[in-house]
Write a structure and sequence with these properties.
By secondary structure, the chain is of the alpha/beta class. The chain has one domain: TIM Barrel (Alpha-Beta Barrel). About 40% of the residues lie in helices and about 15% in strands. Strands 1-2-3-4-5-6-7-8 form an eight-stranded parallel β-barrel, surrounded by six helices. Strand 3 (about 70), helix 3 and strand 4 form a beta-alpha-beta unit. The protein starts with 9 loop residues before the first strand and ends in a 7-residue tail after the last helix. Bound molecules: 2-phosphoglycolic acid. 2-phosphoglycolic acid binds near residues 181 and 245.
């Protein structure tokens, strides 16, 4: 298995349905200012604003050549047509979006996103040349019933059905236990490590050991500045998908610094 340090760490902020485009401009400017004093060059820093903010955030990142990559929170698996309310991969890539969250538990829970739709959306994202961050994770009930690894195996296998052979280098998985999202109760680093190692073993089984060892696996769910270092200090946790704490420039930057410190200085050595 490849060393963790061969995988570039990522800290991605999922803004969810927060911040209009004016607020988004303020946050990205504050973050840019804060990151000037941070050694973050060896970390992939990503923000996933709402669709309506993308154009504004793209403009600021481009104008100032900020070391921040642009992501979307969701997209359609369809190319174009009479699909009211949907946004295509092509529309996103025209706005310099490079990454898309696929199958976030809030899409699965509240908007009926099935495993099949997760796979076809991943396929669309990859087909359009973008990177997919595929989210998987068990509910509190499934965890209580001891089903965590079974659920993860199923979700990872189903999602990989949408990943063409050769496209794996544009795929990340995010382990996001549903019980930890927005609750303030993060998984312990031991639980996060176990789950991420399990996801990696499923990828190895479905594809190859080499693919599994280079694919990045993030943790998400109540990640904060004070637990970021412990989580990413684990051998199979390659970064963080951050919800609430990404809405504040100071806390998001502090998490980037904590991740950077895990990889030595400069980051990602
Ligand atoms: P949280 O959300 O950090 O607010 O728990 C994480 C996520 O849903 O990606």
């Amino acid at each position: 298995m490849a060393q963790k340090t061969t995988r570039t760490p990522m800290v991605a902020g999922n803004w969810k349905m927060n911040l209009d485009h004016v607020e988004a401009i303020h946050l990205i400017q504050a973050l840019a200012l804060r990151l000037r004093s941070t050694e973050s060059s060896q970390i992939d820093v990503v923000v996933h604003p709402p669709f309506t903010d993308l154009r504004s955030v793209e403009g600021i990142i481009g104008a100032d050549s900020l070391p921040i990559r642009l992501g979307a929170q969701h997209c359609s698996d369809l190319e174009s047509g009479a699909f009211t309310g949907e946004v295509s991969v092509g529309m996103l890539s025209r706005l310099s979006v490079e990454l898309v969250l696929v199958g976030h538990s809030e899409r699965r829970q509240f908007f009926g996103m099935t495993d099949e739709l997760v796979a076809s959306t991943a396929s669309a994202v990859l087909g359009g040349g973008l990177t997919a961050i595929i989210c998987v994770g068990e509910s509190a009930e499934q965890r209580a019933d001891g089903e965590t690894t079974t659920v993860l195996t199923h979700q990872v296998e189903m999602a990989l059905a949408g990943v063409a052979s050769g496209a794996e280098d544009r795929v990340l998985f995010a382990y996001e236990p549903i019980w930890a999202i927005g609750t303030g109760v993060a998984a312990t680093e031991v639980d996060a490590q176990m789950a991420c190692a399990h996801i990696r073993s499923v990828i190895a089984h479905e594809r190859t050991e080499a693919i599994a060892s280079t694919m990045r696996i993030l943790y998400g769910g109540s990640a904060k500045p004070d637990n970021a270092g412990d989580l990413v200090g684990q051998p199979d946790v390659d970064g963080l998908l951050v919800g609430g704490a990404s809405l504040d420039a100071e806390s998001f930057a502090a998490m980037i610094e904590a991740v950077s410190a895990c990889y030595g200085s400069p980051a990602g050595k």
